[in-house]
Design a protein that fits this description.
single chain, about 100 residues, 3 helices
Length: about 100
Amino acid sequence: MMTSCQQSKEDYIKEFKSFVNEVSEECGDYNDADWEKAVKDFEALVKQAEKYEDLTAEETLELAGIQAQYTSLKAKNGINKVIDGVKDLFGGKKDKNK
């Protein structure tokens, strides 16, 4: 994450978008450590928004959309972990019954 103390809000929004796009492209290969880092980076980006008091309604909506996209990716990961766990559980039971 490349942030600076004097980053413009436009650059901040671009950085946030870029971060979420990167997560979107690579999350299929993420392990738990990768997700932990992504969560920390996401939280830092969300917190950074607090310093921009002059966000327009349009910019606020854009940021909300970016956050929603990330949250969706994270939720999908959680659902996939549950599905994999269920598959393992039932797969394990099949193996035990052989």
